[in-house]
Each structure stands twice: as structure tokens, then as C-alpha cells.
Design brief:
- The protein is of the alpha+beta class and 96 residues long.
- The protein has two helices and seven strands, in the order βββαβββαβ.
- It has a single domain, classed as AF2212/PG0164-like (Elongation Factor Tu (Ef-tu), domain 3).
């Protein structure tokens, strides 16, 4: 299962972690496919922003799944807090 969306990169308040939030309609689609997910409700994904692709997990939050965006990706793509990014997620925990 692959989902694509554009959203704003945001920095966790008081921390150094950066995230993007998946829109609720896509979050609902993913939850319907994978169920409860793994530990903490996480779902394994292959994420792509720009030319950077990496394997990680998305995590449930009040307003939709969140994807952590590591520094190496932010630096390579020249993105920072507040920038709108195009995200592609291949959901690895989804059944075929």
C-alpha cells in the first residue's frame, strides 16, 4: 500500500525531533489495512522525501500518524521547520 501527500515539516516543541503528519483520511485508510500496528501502534514504512528514501515507522497521534524525519534527510533535501514537503510512504505492514 502506497500513500502520497504534501504537508508541513514541524519540530517537536522543546526538542530536536522533526515530523510530518499524515492527513486523517490517509491515516484512516492505513489503520483499516493494518489494524492496531506494532508496539505503540507503530506501522513500518519505506518513506521518501525528494531523493531520500529510508525505512522507519509512523506513529499514531491525535491528528493522524506522524513520520519522524531524521536530520540526514532534512540536510540532504535542504528542508527545515515550516517547509511543505511531498511525502511518499510504502506501508510495509499492510497485507498484500
Amino acid at each position: 500500500m502506497e500513500v502520497r501527500f504534501a504537508t508541513e515539516l514541524w519540530q517537536h516543541k522543546g526538542g530536536t525531533w522533526h515530523f510530518v503528519t499524515m492527513p486523517m483520511d490517509l491515516t484512516d485508510d492505513v489503520k483499516a489495512r493494518v489494524g492496531r500496528g506494532r508496539g505503540f501502534g507503530s506501522v513500518r514504512v519505506r518513506a521518501t522525501i525528494g531523493a531520500m528514501t529510508w525505512t522507519t515507522s509512523i506513529f499514531p497521534a491525535t491528528d493522524g500518524y506522524v513520520l519522524p524525519v531524521k536530520r540526514a534527510v532534512r540536510d540532504a533535501e535542504g528542508i527545515d521547520d515550516g517547509d511543505v514537503v511531498e511525502v511518499s510512504l510504502d506501508v510495509l505492514d499492510a497485507p498484500d
